[in-house]
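Read as chain and fold; for instance:
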Amino acid sequence: MANLLEQLREMTVVVADTGDIEAIETFKPRDATTNPSLITAAAQMPQYQSIVDDTLKGARETLGAGASSGDVVTLAFDRLAVSFGLKILDIIPGRVSTEVDARLSYDTDATIAKGRELIEQYEAQGVSRERILIKVAATWEGIQAAAVLEKEGIHCNLTLLFGIHQAIACAENGITLISPFVGRILDWYKKDTGRDSYPAAEDPGVVSVTNIYNYYKKFGYKTEVMGASFRNIGEIMELAGCDLLTIAPSLLAELQSTEGELPRKLDPAKAASADIEKITVDKDAFDRMHAENRMATDKLSEGIA
C-alpha cells in the first residue's frame, strides 16, 4: 500500500510550507509557500548565510550611507524573500508565494505598489509573473488591492483567512488562490472552549475549509482553495481532495512514513449537490460578518500583528 503522501498527491496538489530549500529538494512539491516567519527561520540556518549577507549588502548600497537601519532592513527583507523565492523556483516546477509586508494590510494603495514591486524584482531576474503568487492578508483593503493586481496579471494568494466572508469576497473579486488557516482556527477554539482536542472530522479548522471548498464548487468559483497551517496529519487527511494543501516539512515527513488508506473527503461532485445558500459579500456585509465572528476578528488581528 502507498504511503499517505503518495495517495494525497493523487487528489490534491501538495505544497511545501517552508523557506528551507533543502526540505523542498527532499519532498519535491509542485508549489511552495513562504512567509516572513519561515524566511526568518531559514535565514538563520548556516547554509543560507551567504544569501543573507549579500542581500543586506545590496540593500545598504542601494539606499546609501545615510539610510536608517529600519529602511535597510525593510528593503533587505523584501529582497531576501525574493532571493529565497528564486532559489525555490529553481527546484519546483510550479509557483512560489511571496508575502507583502503585513504592516500594509489595511492600505490598499500601498499593497498594490508593493505587489508590483515584488513582481518587478522577479521579472528582473527573468522569472515570469505566472510563477509568482503575491501573498496578501485577507482584510477588505487587501482583497481590493489583490483584485487590482489580478487585473494586471499579478496572481495573488490571500492569507490570514479565517471566515467564509473573507473567502466569498476573495472569490467574487477574482482572486487566484486563498489560504484558509486550519491550525490557527483550532488553536482559537481550544483556548475559547477549554478543550484539549477535537476529533479530526470535527476540528473547527477542518470544518471551515470544508465549508469554503463546498461553497466554491457549488457556485462555480475558479478561486483555488489551499488549506494551510496544520497542527497534525489528521487535519490533512480530512481535507484530502482539497485543491491544494500547504504542509510543513515535519508533517510531510510524517505523511510519507505512514502507511494506510487515504479516502477522498472533499469532492466537487458532492459539493455541487449540497444544499448551500448563496451570499453576496459587499463591504457592509464583510464588516458585519467579520464583527460577528470573534474567532476571525481575533486571529486576523493577531496574524497581522
